[in-house]
Each structure stands twice: as C-alpha cells, then as structure tokens.
Amino acid sequence: MSATESATGAVASDGYDDRRRKLQAFDDTKAGVKGLVDAGVTSIPRIFHHPPESLKDIVTPCPPSSCTDGGGGAFAIPVVDLSSAVRREDVVAQVRRAAGTVGFFHVTNHGVPAELMAGMLAGARRFNEGPVEVKRALYSRDRDRKVRFGSNFDLFQSEAANWRDTLFCDLAPDPPPPEELPEALRDVITEYGDAVMKLGLRVFELLSGSLGLRSDHLREMGCAESLHVLSQYYPPCPEPHLTLGIKRHTDPGFFTVLLQDGMGGLQVLVDRTWVDVLPLPGALTVNIGDFLQLVSNDRFKSVEHRVPANKSKDTARVSVASFFHADLKRSTRLYGPITDGRNPPLYKSVTAREFIAHFNSVGLDRWTLDYYRLARAAY
C-alpha cells in the first residue's frame, strides 16, 4: 500500500469514527430530535445533513385551503368510499385500480370515529411534548420491547438521519399490558388499534377480491396477524433545506393505514414526480407495502414516499402509521407470489420474519423487494 493510499484510508477511517461518535452521542441523550429543539439549536448537526441530490426536488406542500382534493398539483390520490351505499364490486374495482397504480388511496366512511382519530393524534402530541424523563424511560433499540421510544430506527445504518421521533407500540397479536403504555395515550391507543384492525380486515377483503380470490384469502394467509402502531413526531426544523422528515422509502409490510394531522407533509412518487398527499378531512390513507407487492406478484404496487422536514416555526407535525403484517415471532409460513396461471412468479418465497429482518438490517436506504426478485424477472 502506498503512502497516499494509507493516508486516504486513515482519513476515511477517522471520518467514519467521528460520525459514529456523533451518532452515539445523539442516541445517548435519549431525547430524540425534540431534545435538540428544546436545547435551542439554530443549526442542525451534520448527522442530519442529506446529500444535495436527495433534496434538490423537494417541493413545498400547498396549503390545505388551496388544495383540498387530497393531492397536490394536477394529481389527486384516489378516494374509496367504504359505505354500504356503494356496490361492493365497484369498491373492489376502485381498490384494484389504486393498488395497482399509485399504491395509495384514501378511505372514507371507514368506521373509525372522528373523535377517536382526534384523540389518537392528541395523545401522540402530548407524549412527545411531555416530560423528557417519560420518553427516556421508554427509549430503546430493542425490537422485542412492545412499547419503545426512539429516533431513527436505522440511525447507525443510514447515510443521514431524519428529523423525526417515533413511539412504537406493537398491539397485535400480543398487546402490551396497559401499565407499559405511556399515560399520555394509554386511554386511546388500544381503542384506536382495535378500530384500525377492523378497518384493516375490510381492506384485506377488498384486496383479496381485487386479486380474484375469496374475500378471506389474505386473512387466512395470516396477513393481518400483526399490527404495529407508530406515532411519528416531526418537530420544527431550523434548517429544513438540509434534511428530511423521512427520506424516500417504501413500507415493508402488507399495507399501512396512515392518520395525518392537519399539517400534511406526506409526498408520493408518481410518474417520477413528487406529489403531495394532503389529509382529506375524516379520511384515512392506505398504502401498499413491499410484502404485498411480492405476494401479489407485482399486481399491487409499493410506491416510494417521503416527508420533507417541518418548515413551521413553532408547530410540530404528528401522524400515526399502523402497519399490518404476519406474526413476525411465530409464523414460519413461506410467502410467495400468488400467480394467475398466465404470469410466472417474479419473486422467491420468504418468511415474514426473514423479510423484516432484511429490511431492518439495511434500513430505508435500500428497497427490500429487489433482494427477493428472481434473476429472470430483473428487467
């Protein structure tokens, strides 16, 4: 090795070690991004700086008063009415179109009471804006804990951290005892999880019908055994042009049910253009995950999405994402593509546990589906 190569390697190693120390120092505070805001930072630490190429196409969401159709620009996320007044075959057709194209759709008349949704958002805000000692007591990177607080689950794997904190609650199949839940949302999160589970089962029936299967097919496959509810908190960012609330990614599970507050912020990649998904009053948003794209053999699409950093000067953005999956601890079932007899399988079979383990190992910087795509299907 030449002296130049040796010196370059030393610089690279020093840079890696320095970044690692800064990541660990941030993690050791156990206060998350909100802790930095409370400390009065006027510039964000370099560990949150994203590469310029990932920030160059950031667009500012239009205000709700001027964009009330559920989407930004000329594009609107499909809206599916789940009321009994709509013919089932029409609803199935709408879900099939939405799941097979943009991968996102709003649902209205979904059965989750408006006061319950408002209570869930309020509880998530109370927790994040409450005593830091409560959050520190729950701070953990142990994924076996049913209830845990953290910032950036992939903090030590990702190229750049995101300006966001998260409260994780695993509500099914084994809900935590009430005393493990933070008091700020103890009275609402279990009821909200039960309501979202009922909605999720209805969505699975519609998705099964969209694939030409019996309405209980996906449920019988164990697709709705697990429910993880994540309360996401995006504090105001002093330098929003340098970072993201959450980088572009796809969700790993079967599908996600998202509850946004009035600020919005979610953006979806449609035809190579980022479009806003503003909250539709009273609606919830469903998006297809990687595992369902695999199981559907690409008939459903798991689409990239992101959240820009919060540009507000004084108000945090709050959302609640509910992820449906198989039982990640007990299930040993191999999941593979459901084929229609005309098209060959595009992915190899995998257990849910293996799929999520791979996702957790690589974080948000890589698309998990590519790892399981069969070589002959790569094009």
From TrEMBL:
Membrane-spanning ranges: none
Any one Gene Ontology molecular-function term assigned to this protein's record: dioxygenase activity
Keywords from the named record: Iron, Metal-binding, Oxidoreductase
InterPro entries given in the database record: DIOX_N (IPR026992), IPNS-like_FE2OG_OXY (IPR044861), IPNS-like_sf (IPR027443), Oxoglu/Fe-dep_dioxygenase_dom (IPR005123)
Domain Fe2OG dioxygenase positions: 225-326
One Pfam family from the record: DIOX_N
Family label: Belongs to the iron/ascorbate-dependent oxidoreductase family.
Protein's name in the database: Fe2OG dioxygenase domain-containing protein
Species whose genome carries this gene: Urochloa decumbens
